[in-house]
Amino acid sequence: MKFLLVFDFDHTIIDENSDTWIVKCAPENKLPNGLRNSYRPGHWTEYMGRVFVYLGDNGVKEDEMKRTMTTIPFTAGMVDLLGFIGGNKELFDCIIVSDSNTVFIDWILKAADFHKVFDEVFTNPAAFSSTGYLTVQNFHAHHCAKCPKNLCKRKVLKEFLDKQLERGVSYTQIVYIGDGGNDLCPVMFLKKDDIAMPRQGYTLEKKISQLAQDLSPVECSVLVWSSATEIMSYLKVLIKE
Protein backbone atom coordinates (compact mmCIF):
# COMPACT_ATOMS: atom_id res chain seq x y z
CA MET A 1 0.00 0.00 0.00
CA LYS A 2 1.79 3.07 -1.23
CA PHE A 3 0.59 6.57 -1.98
CA LEU A 4 2.01 8.98 -4.55
CA LEU A 5 2.14 12.65 -3.57
CA VAL A 6 2.61 15.05 -6.48
CA PHE A 7 3.51 18.63 -5.56
CA ASP A 8 3.67 21.80 -7.56
CA PHE A 9 6.38 24.14 -6.21
CA ASP A 10 5.60 27.87 -6.61
CA HIS A 11 2.68 29.05 -4.42
CA THR A 12 2.33 25.46 -3.17
CA ILE A 13 5.51 24.38 -1.37
CA ILE A 14 6.83 27.93 -1.24
CA ASP A 15 4.49 30.87 -0.72
CA GLU A 16 5.81 32.87 -3.68
CA ASN A 17 6.74 32.49 -7.33
CA SER A 18 10.46 31.68 -7.45
CA ASP A 19 10.80 33.15 -10.95
CA THR A 20 9.44 36.56 -9.95
CA TRP A 21 11.26 36.53 -6.58
CA ILE A 22 14.64 36.53 -8.37
CA VAL A 23 13.82 40.07 -9.60
CA LYS A 24 14.87 41.21 -6.10
CA CYS A 25 18.43 40.75 -7.40
CA ALA A 26 17.89 43.20 -10.26
CA PRO A 27 18.97 46.86 -10.06
CA GLU A 28 16.29 48.72 -8.01
CA ASN A 29 14.47 45.37 -7.63
CA LYS A 30 12.77 45.73 -11.00
CA LEU A 31 13.07 44.81 -14.66
CA PRO A 32 13.06 47.34 -17.51
CA ASN A 33 9.64 47.70 -19.19
CA GLY A 34 10.90 46.38 -22.52
CA LEU A 35 12.01 43.14 -20.88
CA ARG A 36 8.87 42.84 -18.76
CA ASN A 37 6.66 43.33 -21.82
CA SER A 38 8.57 40.76 -23.89
CA TYR A 39 6.69 37.82 -22.31
CA ARG A 40 4.41 35.90 -24.69
CA PRO A 41 1.75 33.55 -23.23
CA GLY A 42 2.95 29.94 -23.15
CA HIS A 43 6.62 30.99 -23.49
CA TRP A 44 7.54 31.71 -19.88
CA THR A 45 10.81 29.73 -19.89
CA GLU A 46 12.18 31.72 -22.83
CA TYR A 47 11.18 34.92 -21.04
CA MET A 48 13.03 33.80 -17.89
CA GLY A 49 16.07 33.09 -20.06
CA ARG A 50 16.07 36.78 -21.02
CA VAL A 51 15.63 37.80 -17.37
CA PHE A 52 18.70 35.73 -16.43
CA VAL A 53 20.73 37.36 -19.21
CA TYR A 54 19.72 40.78 -17.86
CA LEU A 55 20.76 39.80 -14.32
CA GLY A 56 24.07 38.44 -15.63
CA ASP A 57 24.69 41.61 -17.65
CA ASN A 58 24.17 43.59 -14.45
CA GLY A 59 26.79 41.57 -12.59
CA VAL A 60 24.43 39.49 -10.45
CA LYS A 61 26.42 36.43 -9.34
CA GLU A 62 25.38 32.93 -8.32
CA ASP A 63 25.96 33.44 -4.57
CA GLU A 64 23.75 36.55 -4.49
CA MET A 65 21.00 34.70 -6.35
CA LYS A 66 21.25 31.77 -3.97
CA ARG A 67 21.09 34.02 -0.89
CA THR A 68 17.99 35.73 -2.28
CA MET A 69 16.21 32.51 -3.24
CA THR A 70 16.71 30.82 0.12
CA THR A 71 14.82 33.67 1.87
CA ILE A 72 11.52 32.66 0.21
CA PRO A 73 9.04 31.61 2.90
CA PHE A 74 7.42 28.19 2.81
CA THR A 75 3.61 28.10 2.64
CA ALA A 76 1.84 27.97 6.03
CA GLY A 77 2.14 24.49 7.57
CA MET A 78 4.41 23.21 4.77
CA VAL A 79 7.50 22.70 6.94
CA ASP A 80 5.50 20.42 9.27
CA LEU A 81 3.92 18.60 6.33
CA LEU A 82 7.26 17.88 4.65
CA GLY A 83 8.66 16.73 7.99
CA PHE A 84 5.72 14.36 8.37
CA ILE A 85 6.15 12.94 4.85
CA GLY A 86 9.90 12.55 5.42
CA GLY A 87 9.16 10.50 8.54
CA ASN A 88 6.77 8.20 6.64
CA LYS A 89 8.69 7.56 3.41
CA GLU A 90 7.81 3.85 3.48
CA LEU A 91 4.18 4.87 2.77
CA PHE A 92 4.69 7.85 0.46
CA ASP A 93 6.51 8.36 -2.80
CA CYS A 94 6.79 12.07 -3.37
CA ILE A 95 7.59 14.03 -6.54
CA ILE A 96 7.64 17.67 -7.63
CA VAL A 97 6.36 18.71 -11.06
CA SER A 98 7.08 22.40 -11.49
CA ASP A 99 7.53 25.15 -14.04
CA SER A 100 10.36 26.63 -11.95
CA ASN A 101 13.89 25.28 -12.59
CA THR A 102 16.34 22.76 -11.16
CA VAL A 103 18.72 25.36 -9.68
CA PHE A 104 16.07 27.27 -7.71
CA ILE A 105 14.29 24.17 -6.39
CA ASP A 106 17.58 22.52 -5.44
CA TRP A 107 18.80 25.58 -3.52
CA ILE A 108 15.54 26.01 -1.62
CA LEU A 109 15.04 22.33 -0.70
CA LYS A 110 18.67 21.81 0.32
CA ALA A 111 18.80 24.99 2.43
CA ALA A 112 15.81 23.69 4.43
CA ASP A 113 17.08 20.09 4.36
CA PHE A 114 13.98 18.81 2.53
CA HIS A 115 15.66 17.40 -0.61
CA LYS A 116 15.49 13.82 0.76
CA VAL A 117 11.68 14.03 1.09
CA PHE A 118 11.32 14.00 -2.72
CA ASP A 119 12.07 10.99 -4.89
CA GLU A 120 12.22 13.00 -8.11
CA VAL A 121 11.92 16.60 -9.25
CA PHE A 122 10.61 17.28 -12.76
CA THR A 123 11.28 20.87 -13.78
CA ASN A 124 13.07 22.99 -16.37
CA PRO A 125 16.82 22.19 -16.42
CA ALA A 126 18.98 25.15 -15.41
CA ALA A 127 22.72 25.63 -14.97
CA PHE A 128 25.32 28.38 -14.72
CA SER A 129 27.37 28.94 -17.86
CA SER A 130 31.16 29.31 -17.86
CA THR A 131 30.61 33.10 -17.83
CA GLY A 132 28.48 32.83 -14.67
CA TYR A 133 25.10 33.41 -16.29
CA LEU A 134 22.13 31.27 -15.28
CA THR A 135 20.62 29.49 -18.28
CA VAL A 136 17.33 27.58 -18.44
CA GLN A 137 15.87 25.16 -20.97
CA ASN A 138 12.40 23.76 -21.67
CA PHE A 139 11.68 20.57 -19.74
CA HIS A 140 10.44 18.67 -22.80
CA ALA A 141 8.47 18.92 -26.02
CA HIS A 142 4.81 17.83 -26.06
CA HIS A 143 1.65 18.03 -28.14
CA CYS A 144 -0.82 19.22 -25.48
CA ALA A 145 -2.67 22.32 -26.66
CA LYS A 146 -3.72 23.23 -23.11
CA CYS A 147 -0.25 23.52 -21.57
CA PRO A 148 2.67 25.95 -21.87
CA LYS A 149 5.13 25.04 -24.61
CA ASN A 150 7.84 23.83 -22.20
CA LEU A 151 5.88 21.59 -19.84
CA CYS A 152 2.78 19.39 -19.83
CA LYS A 153 2.42 18.11 -16.27
CA ARG A 154 -0.01 15.37 -17.34
CA LYS A 155 2.64 13.94 -19.68
CA VAL A 156 5.22 14.02 -16.86
CA LEU A 157 2.85 12.27 -14.46
CA LYS A 158 1.80 9.65 -16.99
CA GLU A 159 5.41 8.83 -17.93
CA PHE A 160 6.40 8.61 -14.24
CA LEU A 161 3.52 6.20 -13.48
CA ASP A 162 4.38 4.06 -16.53
CA LYS A 163 8.01 3.85 -15.43
CA GLN A 164 6.97 2.93 -11.89
CA LEU A 165 4.67 0.18 -13.21
CA GLU A 166 7.61 -1.29 -15.15
CA ARG A 167 9.45 -1.45 -11.80
CA GLY A 168 6.44 -3.18 -10.26
CA VAL A 169 5.25 -0.13 -8.29
CA SER A 170 1.60 0.89 -8.42
CA TYR A 171 -0.17 3.31 -6.09
CA THR A 172 -3.29 2.96 -3.95
CA GLN A 173 -4.01 6.64 -4.46
CA ILE A 174 -2.45 9.69 -6.10
CA VAL A 175 -2.71 12.95 -4.17
CA TYR A 176 -2.06 16.00 -6.38
CA ILE A 177 -1.27 19.24 -4.54
CA GLY A 178 -1.08 22.44 -6.59
CA ASP A 179 -2.41 25.90 -7.27
CA GLY A 180 -1.95 26.96 -10.88
CA GLY A 181 -3.74 26.76 -14.21
CA ASN A 182 -1.09 24.37 -15.50
CA ASP A 183 -2.04 21.91 -12.72
CA LEU A 184 -5.48 21.34 -14.27
CA CYS A 185 -4.20 19.12 -17.09
CA PRO A 186 -2.70 16.47 -14.71
CA VAL A 187 -5.74 16.74 -12.39
CA MET A 188 -7.99 15.83 -15.36
CA PHE A 189 -5.87 12.69 -15.76
CA LEU A 190 -6.56 11.49 -12.17
CA LYS A 191 -9.01 8.64 -11.54
CA LYS A 192 -11.92 8.46 -9.13
CA ASP A 193 -9.87 6.97 -6.27
CA ASP A 194 -7.35 9.82 -6.52
CA ILE A 195 -7.59 13.25 -4.95
CA ALA A 196 -6.80 16.74 -6.17
CA MET A 197 -5.89 19.29 -3.51
CA PRO A 198 -6.08 22.78 -5.01
CA ARG A 199 -4.94 25.74 -2.91
CA GLN A 200 -7.83 27.94 -1.84
CA GLY A 201 -8.33 31.12 -3.85
CA TYR A 202 -5.85 30.20 -6.60
CA THR A 203 -6.38 29.45 -10.30
CA LEU A 204 -6.58 25.65 -10.01
CA GLU A 205 -9.45 25.81 -7.51
CA LYS A 206 -11.32 28.30 -9.71
CA LYS A 207 -10.86 26.15 -12.83
CA ILE A 208 -12.04 22.97 -11.06
CA SER A 209 -15.19 24.71 -9.75
CA GLN A 210 -15.85 26.18 -13.21
CA LEU A 211 -15.76 22.65 -14.66
CA ALA A 212 -18.26 21.49 -12.02
CA GLN A 213 -20.57 24.40 -12.93
CA ASP A 214 -20.28 23.43 -16.60
CA LEU A 215 -21.36 19.91 -15.56
CA SER A 216 -18.07 18.34 -16.65
CA PRO A 217 -16.49 17.86 -13.22
CA VAL A 218 -13.12 16.21 -12.71
CA GLU A 219 -13.25 12.47 -12.04
CA CYS A 220 -11.17 12.52 -8.84
CA SER A 221 -12.20 13.81 -5.40
CA VAL A 222 -11.34 17.43 -4.61
CA LEU A 223 -10.23 18.80 -1.25
CA VAL A 224 -9.36 22.49 -1.03
CA TRP A 225 -6.61 23.61 1.38
CA SER A 226 -5.33 26.92 2.65
CA SER A 227 -2.72 25.63 5.12
CA ALA A 228 -0.58 22.55 4.60
CA THR A 229 -1.70 21.32 8.04
CA GLU A 230 -5.01 20.46 6.31
CA ILE A 231 -3.08 18.31 3.82
CA MET A 232 -1.26 16.63 6.72
CA SER A 233 -4.58 15.89 8.49
CA TYR A 234 -5.85 14.21 5.34
CA LEU A 235 -2.66 12.11 4.94
CA LYS A 236 -2.87 10.99 8.58
CA VAL A 237 -6.42 9.73 7.97
CA LEU A 238 -5.27 8.07 4.74
CA ILE A 239 -2.54 5.98 6.38
CA LYS A 240 -4.85 4.90 9.23
CA GLU A 241 -7.51 3.53 6.85
From TrEMBL:
Signal peptide: none annotated. Keywords: Hydrolase, Magnesium, Metal-binding. It comes from the Eukaryota. Pfam families: Put_Phosphatase. GO terms for molecular function: metal ion binding; phosphatase activity. Mg(2+) binds at D8, D10, D179. This is PHOP2 phosphatase. It comes from Fregata magnificens (Magnificent frigatebird). The gene is Phospho2.
